[in-house]
């Protein structure tokens, strides 16, 4: 299927997507991050653009080319991602949070490299919680249709449903990791108020196209 034959069911809509990991610096040469290639989020951005949407992609540090026609904003930390996403969100009809946002960041940032020399004991770091971008967007008075992701190592359905409720979003997409991280294929399960449905295992672009279709149907059903 080439882009030409993709149904343009997102024409006239703006989609905001987060993708990739975030990186939380400890000092100028090191930091903490999550495992995420960004491939799923970038594939969704491409599929949404092909479906006629105007797409804004907010990306953490990844090594991926920008999909054609997509407006990309690069960030490093969760706080930077939050600061870009929150003011943009009300101008979009859909928000898809695929990013593997670091849940915590070091409570203080050292402006010089922490040296091993002279430190007899290993340093310890106090962490502080990052803002929850998806939950914050879902709380906006003029909120877009919000889609969360849940990458879990176990009890996928239970955790996905718990996130649906806790973040108060209409759709959560689950996948089991870390087996699929960085791979070109994936298996997704859609969890909403009605129940759950598996999308058959496929490459990430095919899954992204199927997912974009599912989201378009839900959005159009909601506004019909
Ligand atoms: N998310 C977010 N901002 C955060 C943490 C998560 O926007 N600070 C989004 C993710 O992009 C994803 C969804 O929330 O769409 C679920 O992320 P996940 O890490 O699975 O959930 P958490 O609420 O952080 O719970 P936990 O990591 O403990 O499972
Ligand atoms: Ca998390």
TrEMBL record:
This is Coenzyme A biosynthesis bifunctional protein CoaBC. Residues 15-224 are annotated as: Phosphopantothenate--cysteine ligase. Its cofactor is Mg(2+); FMN. It comes from the Bacteria. Pathway: Cofactor biosynthesis; coenzyme A biosynthesis; CoA from (R)-pantothenate: step 2/5; Cofactor biosynthesis; coenzyme A biosynthesis; CoA from (R)-pantothenate: step 3/5. Its EC number is 4.1.1.36, 6.3.2.5. In the C-terminal section; belongs to the PPC synthetase family. GO terms for molecular function: phosphopantothenate--cysteine ligase activity; phosphopantothenoylcysteine decarboxylase activity. Binds 1 FMN per subunit. It catalyses: N-[(R)-4-phosphopantothenoyl]-L-cysteine + H(+) = (R)-4'-phosphopantetheine + CO2; (R)-4'-phosphopantothenate + L-cysteine + CTP = N-[(R)-4-phosphopantothenoyl]-L-cysteine + CMP + diphosphate + H(+). CTP binds at residues 103, 113, 131-134, 149, 163, 167. Residues 11-217 form the DNA/pantothenate metabolism flavoprotein C-terminal domain. Catalyzes two steps in the biosynthesis of coenzyme A. In the first step cysteine is conjugated to 4'-phosphopantothenate to form 4-phosphopantothenoylcysteine, in the latter compound is decarboxylated to form 4'-phosphopantotheine. Catalyzes two sequential steps in the biosynthesis of coenzyme A. In the first step cysteine is conjugated to 4'-phosphopantothenate to form 4-phosphopantothenoylcysteine. In the second step the latter compound is decarboxylated to form 4'-phosphopantotheine. Keywords: Decarboxylase, Flavoprotein, FMN, Ligase, Lyase, Magnesium, Metal-binding, Multifunctional enzyme.
